[in-house]
Amino acid sequence: MEKFIIEHKDCYIDDDTSPHEVCPMVLVQKILSGKWKILILWYLVNGPLRFSDIKRNLPNVTQKMLTNQLRSLEEDNLIYRKVYPVVPPKVEYGLTEIGNKIIPVLKTMHDYGQEYISDIKNE
Hints:
By secondary structure, the protein is mostly helical.
């Protein structure tokens, strides 16, 4: 949490009762910023995936970028990385308990995207 020290002032929602020193919206923006993070989380909603499965779902991401994004999500405790002691090594990624709490947000984003597409088509 220390890497997210941002003063909670001049917030869009001016809430004098907020017990946080960090603006929650800025925190979420920092956690989810990254070209592929939201899509990685979205693909993990249905359960753990191996690196190659995630890569297959994101064909335009480089291996290095995907590795960096996965590490960042792991550092922020949104996903876990499980290494199985087999040859060749098997590694799975999945949502943590905290990561599962973002599923409703992701579903809302998906629904908004569908509505947006429909609205644009009907204009």
